[in-house]
Design a protein that fits this description.
It contains 9 helices and 10 strands. By secondary structure, it is of the alpha+beta class. It has 2 domains: about 210 residues, Ribosomal Protein S5, domain 2; about 100 residues. The structure holds adenosine-5'-diphosphate.
């Protein structure tokens, strides 16, 4: 069976001063930074900048499995979608998912499954979407770091955080965290995912040639680099927690958790406002009652026009006039009622608890007055 041995690479990966082309020492990481909560619509999310890599990870779930036949009654399933943006590399990358992307999705899933409690989510799925916006070598490692951070941000319980970082070899020297060129021209590449709780390895791939001693050195570098990245992950999570705590404190102080003396002065001014409002309401009520009284008095004092003419007209004329006067008195009555209603409405608008009984009795009183003032009964007699 033929053994595929990679061709020797003679491209330069070191400067004259012995440092790597980007100025790093052999056991030095590329610049790394991360943040969480970067995608509002996701349950949890993270952004990782690792060297020239720019990677987003977003978590959805645990939620119902689609299609349903994939659901497992004994445990939840983890689905990982690693994708590279068309513009993430020098040449245009085809937007269709390729074999490499499917393979990387699979290895990231396998690296994360051991730290999740999937048995706690039967019939459910957790989805991790990873988008590589810019690629610069070692994207599967940086993507795993981002996915772990996003899971923590989503509040999904984990046995441990995981960190992805690679070791490798170029020009006969063992290196930590290979860049794109080192990855392509180097002699070996070992992407690793470290479970930070016990420093076990949940993913190890190997591509190239290395002696056992070189591999041991490589793993030492990996553990050292993983610890640095892990501290940055914790820092990002702490930063978000502190931000939420600060916002909650500001909200609390705005709502009512003010110091006692401030609360007291607020209460006093509130009481003063209440009493002012009550006084003005009483004034309005009195004004309306006075108006009603005046209207009643006016009608009582008015002599009935029919009374004045009653002696001069005969019975038939009386009948005719009676009809006219009844109509007139109806008009008057309705106009009076309108006035009273509008007065009462204005009274009600000032007082939120209208005294219905009072209104009713004053209306009855009005009706009685009108009836008394009208010529109907007396005149006929
Ligand atoms: P990793 O990114 O995990 O190292 P690979 O070793 O497969 O994975 O890829 C090495 C680098 O090659 C990637 O980081 C990326 O910069 C580049 N690369 C990968 N796929 C493509 C592609 N389709 N076109 C151009 N460059 C690519």
């Amino acid at each position: 069976m033929p053994i595929l041995v990679p061709e020797p690479h003679d491209e330069i990966c070191f400067r004259e001063d012995g440092k790597r082309l980007d100025g790093r020492a052999v056991d030095e990481l590329r610049p790394f930074s991360c943040e969480v909560g970067v995608i509002k619509n996701a349950q949890g999310s993270a952004l990782v900048r690792h060297g020239g890599n720019l990677i987003y990870a977003a978590i959805y779930g645990p939620r119902e499995v689609h299609p349903r036949h994939l659901a497992r009654p004994d445990k939840g399933i983890l689905r990982v979608y690693y994708r590279m943006a068309t513009f993430s590399v020098h040449e245009r990358k085809s937007p269709a998912p390729n074999r490499r992307e499917n393979e990387i999705s699979k290895v990231i899933r396998e690296a994360l499954e051991p730290v999740l409690f999937l048995e706690a989510y039967p019939d459910s799925q957790i989805e991790i979407y990873i988008e590589v916006i810019a690629a610069d070598g070692g994207t599967r490692c940086a993507s795993t770091t981002a996915a772990s951070l996003a899971l923590a941000d989503a509040g999904i319980p984990m046995k441990s955080m995981v960190v992805g970082v690679a070791a490798g070899k170029a020009q006969g020297r063992v290196l930590l965290d290979l860049g794109d060129k080192e990855d392509k021209v180097g002699q070996a590449d070992i992407p690793c995912v470290v479970v930070m709780k016990d420093k076990s390895i949940s993913l190890l791939q190997f591509d190239g040639e290395m002696s056992l001693e070189e591999m041991k050195t490589g793993f030492e570098y990996v553990l050292k680099g993983a610890e640095i990245i892990y501290q940055k992950q914790l820092e990002a999570l702490r930063e978000k927690y502190n931000k939420i705590t600060r916002e909650a404190e500001i909200e609390d102080s705005a709502v009512g958790n003010l110091p006692q003396n401030e609360q007291k002065s607020i209460n006093e001014s509130q009481n003063a406002q209440d009493s002012l409002q009550n006084t003005s309401q009483i004034d309005e009520q009195m004004k309306v009652q006075n108006e009603k009284q005046e209207i009643n008095n006016d009608h009582k004092a008015e002599p009935s026009p029919l009374m004045e003419n009653s002696s001069a007209i005969n019975e038939s004329q009386k009948e005719v006039e009676k009809g006219e006067v009844e109509e007139k008195s109806k008009d008057e009555k309705s106009s009076e009622e309108n006035i009273i209603k509008s007065s009462e409405q204005s009274a009600n608008s000032t007082d939120d608890s209208p005294k219905q009984g009072e209104n009713q009795s004053s209306q009855e009183e009005q009706q009685l007055n009108t009836e008394n003032d009208s010529p109907s009964g007396d005149d006929q007699e």
